[in-house]
């Protein structure tokens, strides 16, 4: 017994000695700078940056840079503009994490820990057991369950075409889980939307990248990818929006380097999160069909539709995609003036391969597939202040309601 105790003690002290305690990245004094990039300096820019915020762009890149690297960065490029003087101060404006109380409007006044997001969804569902259930969409690399809510109306469970909504694909895009939770909350609690609930079966998963999301709360607020390792490499994470198994192999819209923010993975669909999301899309395709797929991201204020992998290709119903997006754009603007840019994703934003909406359009046979990029256009970027949560979720919901009416 004594020897067991001694060895346990020894084990725990050795363990403490080798495992460093998790220290959160301190972004005090770091700036966000928008720089005019060219191919010859792109690698140097990336090596000076703590994070690239819009890693697909090639000409105008937003980078987070430490005070020590600011001068070197500016010297490297022809043009630069400081978007944020102090990322640490912006993080403070995100507000304190709020402890959880039952689902109510006040949920949308603060950001929340991962466990509370799960509790919010469970409590919301518990109030509407006759028209909703909690669904699991897969499991992350660290074993967290991708948790969603299925909502149906008077036709009964599973009787209507599906609307599939994914949030927090990218870990740092916190406003997107708040927003997709607002959709679920409105559908269940606001009788105004009964006709929409009766028209579709909704599958809303607010956090499809739980490991990354937790990592942004414990360690690095600006983490993007999942937390999957690559054998023989120290860099972590696959970009879930570059790992879908459609046109994954096409060059130019993702990175093959495990250290890149847009690392595509070793094989198409080799991220467990993607396996689960793909299975969800495939199974709904095979049963009732998907009317509308929404992948909710931030930031930039865009509504985008296929294709990402080729800037010259258009979806066969490109004109309908555009007209539905145009009405959603007006509906958003009508709420408080927020201006969205709309268009096919590759030609409007940048090329992406293995992205969700190309998969849902072609393989998932969804009638409409859109990527939303929520507020803002770069001043706060991913760290949108708590006082912008409510206005953002409300205007986005107006856009989505418009789409649901049209779809
Ligand atoms: O790069 C992305 O994955 C998205 N932008 S973000 O800043 N949130 O990372 C844009 C994806 C849009 N393109 C396609 N879905 N094809
Ligand atoms: Zn994103």
From TrEMBL:
It is found in: Secreted. GO terms for molecular function: metallocarboxypeptidase activity; zinc ion binding. Gene3D superfamilies: Zn peptidases. One of its GO terms (cellular component) is extracellular region. It comes from the Eukaryota. Residues 1-16 form the signal peptide. Residues 110-407 form the Peptidase M14 domain. The active site is at residue 373. Its cofactor is Zn(2+). Its main location: secreted. SMART domains: Zn_pept. GO terms for biological process: proteolysis. Pfam families: Peptidase_M14. Belongs to the peptidase M14 family. Extracellular metalloprotease that contributes to pathogenicity. This is Carboxypeptidase-like protein A1. It comes from Clathrospora elynae.
């Amino acid at each position: 017994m004594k020897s067991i105790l001694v060895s346990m003690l020894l084990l725990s002290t050795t363990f403490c000695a080798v495992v460093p305690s998790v220290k959160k990245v301190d972004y005090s004094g770091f700036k966000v700078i928008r720089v005019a990039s060219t191919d010859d300096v792109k690698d140097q820019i990336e090596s000076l940056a703590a994070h690239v915020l819009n890693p697909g762009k090639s000409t105008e890149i937003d980078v987070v840079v430490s005070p020590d690297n600011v001068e070197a960065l500016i010297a490297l490029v022809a043009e630069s503009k400081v978007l944020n003087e102090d990322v640490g101060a912006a993080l403070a404006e995100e507000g304190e994490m709020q402890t959880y109380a039952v689902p109510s409007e006040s949920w949308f006044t603060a950001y929340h820990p991962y466990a509370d997001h799960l509790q919010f969804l469970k409590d919301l569902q518990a109030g509407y057991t006759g028209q909703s259930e909690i669904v699991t969409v897969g499991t992350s690399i660290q074993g967290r369950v991708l948790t969603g809510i299925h909502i149906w109306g008077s036709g009964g469970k599973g009787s209507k075409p599906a609307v599939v909504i994914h949030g927090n694909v990218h870990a740092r895009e916190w406003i997107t889980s708040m927003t997709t939770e607002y959709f679920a909350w409105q559908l269940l609690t606001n009788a105004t939307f009964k006709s929409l609930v009766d028209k579709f079966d909704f599958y809303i998963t607010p956090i499809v990248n739980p490991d990354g999301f937790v990592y942004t709360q414990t360690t690095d607020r600006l983490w993007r990818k999942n937390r999957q390792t690559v054998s023989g490499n120290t860099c972590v994470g696959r970009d879930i929006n570059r790992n879908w198994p459609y046109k994954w192999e096409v060059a130019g819209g993702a990175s093959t380097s495990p250290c890149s923010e847009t690392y595509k993975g070793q094989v198409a669909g080799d991220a467990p999160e993607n396996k689960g999301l793909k299975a969800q899309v495939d199974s709904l395709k095979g049963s009732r069909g998907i009317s509308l797929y929404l992948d909710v991201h931030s930031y930039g204020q865009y509504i985008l539709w296929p294709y990402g992998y080729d800037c010259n290709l258009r979806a066969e119903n490109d004109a309908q995609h555009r007209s539905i997006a145009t009405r959603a754009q007006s509906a958003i603007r009508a709420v408080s003036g927020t201006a969205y840019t709309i268009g096919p994703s590759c030609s409007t934003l940048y090329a992406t391969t293995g992205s969700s909406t190309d998969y849902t359009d072609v393989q998932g046979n969804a009638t409409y597939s859109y990527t939303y990029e929520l507020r803002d256009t770069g001043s706060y970027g991913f760290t949108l202040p708590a006082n912008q949560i409510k206005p953002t979720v409300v205007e986005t919901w107006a856009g989505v309601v418009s789409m649901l009416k049209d779809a």
